[in-house]
Write a structure and sequence with these properties.
- By secondary structure, this protein is an alpha+beta fold.
- Helix content is 66%, strand content 13%.
- The chain starts with a helix and ends with a helix.
C-alpha cells in the first residue's frame, strides 16, 4: 500500500467517519452505517475504497462480511507519518542542545 492512496481515501470526511467507526473493533456494514447520514450501499462503497487503499480488510461471518482496520496498511501510513515526527524530534533536540550551549557561554 502506498501512503498516497491511504491519504486520498481518508481525505473524504464520510470515508474517514466510516474508518473511525472501526476503531472500536470489527463490524458488519449495517452496524457501521447505523446513524450515518448515508445509505448502507454508500457505506459499502466507502469500505471498498478503504479496502483498496489497504486500510480496511474484511472476513466472512456467516452470510455477512465483517470489516476491520488492517494493521499492516495502517502501519504503512504510520511509518510515513513517523518520518516527520522523527525529524521534528531531531530538530527539537538540536535546538535544546544549541540553547544549552548558549546558556553555558553566558555564565
Amino acid at each position: 500500500m502506498a501512503y498516497g492512496s491511504a491519504l486520498a481515501a481518508l481525505a473524504d470526511p464520510t470515508r474517514r467517519d466510516v474508518f473511525e467507526r472501526l476503531k472500536s473493533g470489527p463490524q458488519p456494514v449495517g452496524e457501521i452505517a447505523r446513524g450515518m447520514p448515508v445509505s448502507r450501499p454508500a457505506v459499502s462503497q466507502h469500505l471498498k475504497a478503504l479496502k483498496e487503499a489497504g486500510l480496511v480488510a474484511d472476513r466472512p461471518d456467516g452470510t455477512r462480511r465483517v470489516y476491520f482496520i488492517d494493521p499492516h496498511g495502517l502501519g504503512e501510513l504510520r511509518k510515513w507519518i513517523d518520518q516527520f515526527w522523527d525529524e521534528a524530534l531531531a530538530a527539537f533536540q538540536a535546538e535544546v542542545e544549541h540553547g544549552s550551549n548558549r546558556e553555558d557561554e553566558v555564565k
